Amino acid sequence: MKHISVLLKESIDGLNLKEDSIVVDCTLGYGGHSSEILKRIKKGHLYAFDQDEEAIAFSSGRLSEIGDNFTIIHANFANLKEELEKRGITKVDAILFDLGVSSPQLDEADRGFSYHQDAKLDMRMDQTQALSAYDVVNTFEEAELADIFYRYGEEKFSRSIAKNIVAARREHPIETTLELAEIIKNSVPERVRRASHPARKVFQAIRIYVNRELEVLEIALQDALSILAIDGHISVITFHSLEDRIVKNKFKEVTEVDLVLKGLPDVPKEKLPDFELVSKKAIAPTTEELEENPRARSAKLRVIKRIK
User: Where does S-adenosyl-L-methionine bind (predicted)?
Assistant: First the structure.
Protein backbone atom coordinates (compact mmCIF):
# COMPACT_ATOMS: atom_id res chain seq x y z
CA MET A 1 0.00 0.00 0.00
CA LYS A 2 1.86 3.11 -1.24
CA HIS A 3 1.38 6.17 0.93
CA ILE A 4 4.08 8.67 1.84
CA SER A 5 3.39 10.43 5.13
CA VAL A 6 3.77 14.19 4.83
CA LEU A 7 5.95 16.22 7.24
CA LEU A 8 6.61 12.99 9.13
CA LYS A 9 9.71 13.98 11.10
CA GLU A 10 8.56 17.53 11.79
CA SER A 11 5.11 16.52 13.05
CA ILE A 12 6.38 13.69 15.26
CA ASP A 13 9.21 15.82 16.67
CA GLY A 14 6.57 18.46 17.38
CA LEU A 15 4.74 16.04 19.67
CA ASN A 16 7.69 16.02 22.11
CA LEU A 17 7.16 12.32 22.87
CA LYS A 18 8.48 10.53 25.94
CA GLU A 19 8.85 6.77 26.32
CA ASP A 20 5.70 6.58 28.47
CA SER A 21 3.56 9.12 26.59
CA ILE A 22 -0.16 8.57 26.04
CA VAL A 23 -0.69 9.61 22.42
CA VAL A 24 -3.67 10.05 20.10
CA ASP A 25 -3.38 9.84 16.32
CA CYS A 26 -6.70 11.26 15.15
CA THR A 27 -6.07 10.22 11.54
CA LEU A 28 -4.56 6.73 11.45
CA GLY A 29 -4.86 6.23 7.69
CA TYR A 30 -2.28 3.74 6.51
CA GLY A 31 -0.20 4.07 9.66
CA GLY A 32 2.78 6.17 8.59
CA HIS A 33 2.69 8.59 11.49
CA SER A 34 1.35 6.02 13.97
CA SER A 35 4.22 3.65 13.18
CA GLU A 36 6.77 6.33 13.98
CA ILE A 37 4.91 7.27 17.18
CA LEU A 38 4.78 3.65 18.35
CA LYS A 39 8.55 3.28 17.91
CA ARG A 40 9.07 6.15 20.34
CA ILE A 41 6.64 5.20 23.13
CA LYS A 42 7.74 1.72 24.24
CA LYS A 43 6.13 2.18 27.68
CA GLY A 44 3.25 4.41 26.59
CA HIS A 45 0.08 3.78 24.60
CA LEU A 46 -1.25 4.94 21.25
CA TYR A 47 -4.94 5.49 20.52
CA ALA A 48 -5.56 5.79 16.78
CA PHE A 49 -8.81 6.89 15.11
CA ASP A 50 -10.09 6.18 11.61
CA GLN A 51 -13.41 5.69 9.81
CA ASP A 52 -12.01 3.69 6.89
CA GLU A 53 -12.23 -0.06 7.52
CA GLU A 54 -9.71 -0.85 4.78
CA ALA A 55 -7.14 1.53 6.28
CA ILE A 56 -7.76 0.11 9.77
CA ALA A 57 -7.21 -3.47 8.58
CA PHE A 58 -3.94 -2.53 6.88
CA SER A 59 -2.60 -0.39 9.74
CA SER A 60 -3.49 -2.94 12.40
CA GLY A 61 -1.09 -5.39 10.80
CA ARG A 62 1.57 -2.74 10.28
CA LEU A 63 1.49 -1.53 13.88
CA SER A 64 1.46 -5.08 15.27
CA GLU A 65 4.93 -5.56 13.80
CA ILE A 66 6.18 -2.76 16.05
CA GLY A 67 4.35 -3.43 19.33
CA ASP A 68 1.03 -4.22 20.96
CA ASN A 69 0.65 -1.01 23.00
CA PHE A 70 -1.96 0.52 20.71
CA THR A 71 -5.75 0.69 20.39
CA ILE A 72 -7.46 1.40 17.08
CA ILE A 73 -10.83 3.12 17.36
CA HIS A 74 -13.22 2.90 14.40
CA ALA A 75 -14.81 6.33 14.76
CA ASN A 76 -14.77 9.87 13.46
CA PHE A 77 -12.33 12.02 15.43
CA ALA A 78 -15.24 14.36 16.21
CA ASN A 79 -15.96 11.71 18.88
CA LEU A 80 -12.41 11.92 20.23
CA LYS A 81 -13.22 12.90 23.81
CA GLU A 82 -16.20 10.57 24.19
CA GLU A 83 -14.36 7.53 22.80
CA LEU A 84 -11.32 8.09 25.03
CA GLU A 85 -13.50 8.57 28.12
CA LYS A 86 -15.12 5.19 27.41
CA ARG A 87 -11.63 3.74 27.81
CA GLY A 88 -10.87 5.65 31.00
CA ILE A 89 -8.63 8.25 29.34
CA THR A 90 -9.25 11.87 30.34
CA LYS A 91 -5.79 13.39 29.72
CA VAL A 92 -3.22 12.69 27.00
CA ASP A 93 0.34 13.84 26.32
CA ALA A 94 0.27 14.30 22.57
CA ILE A 95 -2.27 14.51 19.73
CA LEU A 96 -1.70 14.38 15.98
CA PHE A 97 -4.02 15.43 13.16
CA ASP A 98 -2.97 14.69 9.57
CA LEU A 99 -5.93 16.08 7.66
CA GLY A 100 -4.97 14.94 4.17
CA VAL A 101 -6.81 12.27 2.21
CA SER A 102 -4.41 9.31 1.97
CA SER A 103 -2.86 8.43 -1.39
CA PRO A 104 -4.62 5.03 -1.58
CA GLN A 105 -7.99 6.73 -1.09
CA LEU A 106 -7.16 9.15 -3.89
CA ASP A 107 -5.65 6.55 -6.18
CA GLU A 108 -8.17 3.75 -5.78
CA ALA A 109 -10.79 4.57 -8.37
CA ASP A 110 -13.67 2.84 -6.60
CA ARG A 111 -13.60 5.32 -3.69
CA GLY A 112 -14.77 8.09 -6.02
CA PHE A 113 -12.32 10.74 -4.77
CA SER A 114 -10.28 11.04 -7.97
CA TYR A 115 -11.04 13.15 -11.02
CA HIS A 116 -8.34 11.27 -12.94
CA GLN A 117 -9.97 7.83 -12.83
CA ASP A 118 -13.53 6.78 -13.57
CA ALA A 119 -15.65 5.49 -10.70
CA LYS A 120 -19.06 5.87 -9.14
CA LEU A 121 -19.45 9.18 -7.33
CA ASP A 122 -18.92 8.39 -3.64
CA MET A 123 -16.29 10.30 -1.59
CA ARG A 124 -17.45 8.92 1.77
CA MET A 125 -14.64 8.41 4.27
CA ASP A 126 -17.04 6.30 6.29
CA GLN A 127 -18.68 3.83 3.93
CA THR A 128 -21.55 3.27 6.39
CA GLN A 129 -22.85 6.84 6.22
CA ALA A 130 -25.82 7.60 3.99
CA LEU A 131 -24.92 10.82 2.16
CA SER A 132 -22.54 10.42 -0.79
CA ALA A 133 -21.21 12.65 -3.56
CA TYR A 134 -23.80 11.11 -5.89
CA ASP A 135 -26.61 12.42 -3.67
CA VAL A 136 -25.14 15.92 -3.55
CA VAL A 137 -24.54 16.18 -7.29
CA ASN A 138 -27.88 14.71 -8.33
CA THR A 139 -30.36 16.01 -5.76
CA PHE A 140 -29.19 19.36 -4.41
CA GLU A 141 -30.65 22.59 -5.80
CA GLU A 142 -28.52 24.70 -8.14
CA ALA A 143 -28.07 27.44 -5.52
CA GLU A 144 -27.01 24.88 -2.89
CA LEU A 145 -24.41 23.40 -5.23
CA ALA A 146 -23.01 26.82 -6.12
CA ASP A 147 -22.74 27.67 -2.41
CA ILE A 148 -20.92 24.41 -1.61
CA PHE A 149 -18.45 24.88 -4.48
CA TYR A 150 -17.71 28.46 -3.46
CA ARG A 151 -17.61 27.95 0.31
CA TYR A 152 -15.61 24.72 0.46
CA GLY A 153 -13.66 24.90 -2.80
CA GLU A 154 -13.23 28.66 -3.17
CA GLU A 155 -14.30 28.08 -6.78
CA LYS A 156 -14.78 31.34 -8.72
CA PHE A 157 -16.93 29.68 -11.36
CA SER A 158 -19.24 27.96 -8.87
CA ARG A 159 -22.45 29.31 -10.42
CA SER A 160 -21.74 28.29 -14.00
CA ILE A 161 -20.57 24.84 -12.84
CA ALA A 162 -23.72 24.34 -10.73
CA LYS A 163 -25.92 25.50 -13.61
CA ASN A 164 -24.33 23.02 -16.02
CA ILE A 165 -24.55 20.15 -13.53
CA VAL A 166 -28.28 20.73 -13.08
CA ALA A 167 -28.75 20.95 -16.86
CA ALA A 168 -26.82 17.71 -17.41
CA ARG A 169 -28.69 15.73 -14.77
CA ARG A 170 -32.03 16.65 -16.36
CA GLU A 171 -30.96 14.37 -19.21
CA HIS A 172 -29.82 11.54 -16.93
CA PRO A 173 -28.21 11.14 -13.49
CA ILE A 174 -24.51 12.02 -13.20
CA GLU A 175 -23.09 8.74 -11.97
CA THR A 176 -19.30 8.79 -12.37
CA THR A 177 -16.31 10.93 -11.45
CA LEU A 178 -15.13 11.46 -15.02
CA GLU A 179 -18.62 12.42 -16.14
CA LEU A 180 -18.70 15.10 -13.44
CA ALA A 181 -15.14 16.21 -14.21
CA GLU A 182 -16.03 16.68 -17.88
CA ILE A 183 -19.04 18.87 -17.00
CA ILE A 184 -16.83 20.99 -14.75
CA LYS A 185 -14.15 21.31 -17.44
CA ASN A 186 -16.72 22.57 -19.93
CA SER A 187 -18.01 25.11 -17.40
CA VAL A 188 -14.80 27.12 -16.95
CA PRO A 189 -12.72 29.26 -19.34
CA GLU A 190 -9.91 27.71 -21.39
CA ARG A 191 -7.22 29.61 -19.46
CA VAL A 192 -8.40 28.03 -16.18
CA ARG A 193 -8.19 24.54 -17.67
CA ARG A 194 -4.52 25.11 -18.49
CA ALA A 195 -3.52 26.31 -15.00
CA SER A 196 -4.52 23.17 -13.05
CA HIS A 197 -7.14 20.47 -13.27
CA PRO A 198 -10.46 22.36 -13.47
CA ALA A 199 -12.26 19.78 -11.30
CA ARG A 200 -9.85 19.98 -8.35
CA LYS A 201 -11.67 22.64 -6.32
CA VAL A 202 -15.16 21.25 -6.91
CA PHE A 203 -14.10 17.71 -5.96
CA GLN A 204 -12.49 19.12 -2.81
CA ALA A 205 -15.67 21.02 -1.99
CA ILE A 206 -17.94 18.00 -2.42
CA ARG A 207 -15.61 15.81 -0.35
CA ILE A 208 -15.48 18.36 2.47
CA TYR A 209 -19.26 18.73 2.46
CA VAL A 210 -20.03 15.00 2.32
CA ASN A 211 -17.70 14.25 5.23
CA ARG A 212 -18.45 17.46 7.23
CA GLU A 213 -14.69 17.94 7.41
CA LEU A 214 -14.54 21.55 8.62
CA GLU A 215 -17.32 21.16 11.18
CA VAL A 216 -15.71 17.98 12.49
CA LEU A 217 -12.29 19.68 12.68
CA GLU A 218 -13.61 22.54 14.82
CA ILE A 219 -15.24 20.11 17.26
CA ALA A 220 -12.18 17.87 17.45
CA LEU A 221 -9.71 20.73 17.95
CA GLN A 222 -11.70 22.05 20.90
CA ASP A 223 -11.85 18.59 22.47
CA ALA A 224 -8.16 17.96 21.80
CA LEU A 225 -7.18 21.15 23.60
CA SER A 226 -9.43 20.27 26.55
CA ILE A 227 -7.87 16.82 27.14
CA LEU A 228 -4.23 17.82 26.62
CA ALA A 229 -2.07 17.42 29.73
CA ILE A 230 0.33 20.13 30.91
CA ASP A 231 3.47 20.10 28.69
CA GLY A 232 1.46 18.16 26.11
CA HIS A 233 1.74 19.01 22.40
CA ILE A 234 -0.65 18.96 19.43
CA SER A 235 0.60 18.74 15.83
CA VAL A 236 -1.85 19.55 13.02
CA ILE A 237 -1.07 19.05 9.33
CA THR A 238 -3.45 20.82 6.94
CA PHE A 239 -3.67 20.69 3.15
CA HIS A 240 -5.77 23.67 2.14
CA SER A 241 -6.46 27.20 3.31
CA LEU A 242 -9.89 26.46 4.79
CA GLU A 243 -8.48 23.88 7.22
CA ASP A 244 -5.41 25.97 7.99
CA ARG A 245 -7.52 29.03 8.76
CA ILE A 246 -9.55 27.08 11.34
CA VAL A 247 -6.40 25.74 13.02
CA LYS A 248 -4.57 29.08 12.91
CA ASN A 249 -7.53 30.98 14.38
CA LYS A 250 -8.17 28.43 17.14
CA PHE A 251 -4.50 28.37 18.14
CA LYS A 252 -4.42 32.18 18.10
CA GLU A 253 -7.55 32.32 20.27
CA VAL A 254 -6.08 30.12 23.01
CA THR A 255 -2.54 31.58 23.03
CA GLU A 256 -3.27 35.32 23.09
CA VAL A 257 -3.45 37.45 26.22
CA ASP A 258 -6.80 39.21 26.66
CA LEU A 259 -6.77 42.61 24.92
CA VAL A 260 -7.77 44.37 28.16
CA LEU A 261 -4.71 42.93 29.93
CA LYS A 262 -2.17 43.51 27.15
CA GLY A 263 -1.43 47.06 28.29
CA LEU A 264 -0.61 46.05 31.87
CA PRO A 265 3.08 46.09 32.85
CA ASP A 266 2.70 42.76 34.65
CA VAL A 267 -0.12 40.39 33.64
CA PRO A 268 -1.27 38.19 36.57
CA LYS A 269 -0.14 34.60 36.08
CA GLU A 270 -3.68 33.23 36.33
CA LYS A 271 -4.68 35.49 33.43
CA LEU A 272 -1.96 34.23 31.10
CA PRO A 273 -3.02 31.81 28.33
CA ASP A 274 -2.98 28.07 29.00
CA PHE A 275 -1.23 27.41 25.67
CA GLU A 276 1.68 28.68 23.60
CA LEU A 277 2.67 28.21 19.98
CA VAL A 278 5.70 25.96 19.49
CA SER A 279 6.47 27.69 16.20
CA LYS A 280 5.12 31.16 15.38
CA LYS A 281 4.68 30.36 11.70
CA ALA A 282 3.38 27.25 9.96
CA ILE A 283 6.06 24.72 8.98
CA ALA A 284 6.17 23.77 5.29
CA PRO A 285 7.72 20.70 3.62
CA THR A 286 11.36 20.91 2.59
CA THR A 287 12.44 21.05 -1.05
CA GLU A 288 13.68 17.47 -0.70
CA GLU A 289 10.31 16.25 0.54
CA LEU A 290 8.49 18.00 -2.29
CA GLU A 291 10.74 16.32 -4.83
CA GLU A 292 9.92 12.92 -3.33
CA ASN A 293 6.22 13.65 -2.78
CA PRO A 294 4.69 16.46 -4.89
CA ARG A 295 1.33 15.95 -3.11
CA ALA A 296 2.90 17.56 -0.04
CA ARG A 297 3.12 20.96 -1.79
CA SER A 298 0.15 22.51 0.03
CA ALA A 299 0.84 20.99 3.46
CA LYS A 300 1.33 23.14 6.55
CA LEU A 301 2.15 22.05 10.09
CA ARG A 302 1.15 23.98 13.19
CA VAL A 303 2.15 22.92 16.71
CA ILE A 304 0.80 24.09 20.06
CA LYS A 305 1.74 23.27 23.67
CA ARG A 306 -0.21 23.41 26.95
CA ILE A 307 1.82 25.34 29.53
CA LYS A 308 -0.60 25.36 32.48
Answer: 31-33, 50, 77, 98, 105
